[in-house]
Specification:
This protein is α+β, with helices and mostly antiparallel strands and 236 residues long. It is 34% helix and 31% strand. The chain has helices spanning 11-25, 34-41, 45-57, 76-93, 111-116, 119-129, 144-149, 214-217; strands spanning 2-3, 30-32, 61-66, 69-74, 98-106, 138-142, 159-161, 164-165, 170-171, 174-183, 186-196, 198-199, 205-209, 225-231. Strands 5-6-13-11-10-14 form a 6-stranded antiparallel β-barrel. A 3-stranded antiparallel beta sheet has the order 2-4-3. Strands 1-12 form a two-stranded antiparallel ribbon. A hairpin with a 2-residue loop joins strand 3 (61-66) and strand 4 (69-74). The chain starts with a strand and ends in a 5-residue tail after the last strand.
Length: 236
């Protein structure tokens, strides 16, 4: 499994990343002049070049050096960092009462059944979520708009699931977000979006757990559309 968290990004590097994104680097490679970037960032050409190098080495940018300059594009990790920054500004200036994400049902790889049933997780689900989950997860491929909106997930109410160990290995922590589901004219709750600290899933998908098999309860098949309604965390 790969780490899902975004590597820490400094303010100066974030400004450089944002400049590349504004130039079109989110949708493909763009030609970047260090002199032009330095002028926009109010710094020296050498410093602008160094920031691009740092962004590349940290995985936020892909760069290709050519004879007359360089072609630069924002990686998925870089896009995630920009989405997180965007979500922070939305929380500053927009009144929010929760988050709704939409997507389509997909068939997973079957790993959820194994991990959900492990005793170290199962005991925490029972005590902290108030139910024993069905042994398996419902996989949702997010829509384009919800991929962007996912950056707001961390602001929603959540329940921590701690890491634990057995005699052979350590199992990672996770965060569960209470949600209400809506599909095919039906609603369902309680359910939780579960986000492991370490996961093979990318930012385009989510996993859901519930006391019952959600495919049966909501009459779901692959490619059906599902809405996930989450509640914003209390600021009190």
């Amino acid at each position: 499994m790969s780490e899902s968290a975004v590597t820490s990004l400094g303010h100066d590097e974030l400004q450089a990343l944002k400049a590349v994104g504004l130039d079109g680097g989110l949708s493909g490679s763009v030609k970047v002049s260090c002199a032009s970037l330095a002028e926009r960032l109010d710094t020296s050409t050498q410093t602008a070049s160094r920031r691009l190098q740092q962004l590349e080495s940290s995985g936020f940018l892909d760069r290709e050096i050519v004879s007359d300059g360089q072609w630069v594009s924002v990686t998925e990790t870089g896009q995630q960092a920009l989405r997180s920054e965007y979500a922070d500004y939305r929380r500053l200036f927009e009144e929010q009462t929760g988050l709704t994400l939409t997507g389509t049902i997909t068939t997973g790889m079957g790993e959820g059944r194994h991990y959900i049933s492990l005793p170290g997780y199962k005991q925490q689900f029972e005590s902290r979520l108030g139910y024993t989950p069905f042994p398996g997860t419902l996989n949702v491929e997010l829509s384009e708009a919800s991929i962007r909106g996912r950056a707001d997930l961390s602001a929603q109410a959540s329940v921590p699931i701690d890491s634990w160990e057995d005699d052979e290995r350590t199992f990672g922590a996770a965060t569960c977000y209470p949600a209400r589901l809506e599909a095919n004219g039906r609603q369902y709750g309680p359910t939780h979006v579960i986000v492991p600290d370490r996961t093979h899933h990318d930012e385009e998908s989510l996993e859901l757990i519930a006391p019952e098999k959600l495919r049966d309860e909501l009459n779901l098949t692959d490619d059906d559309t599902l809405s996930i309604h989450l509640e914003e965390a209390s600021t009190e």
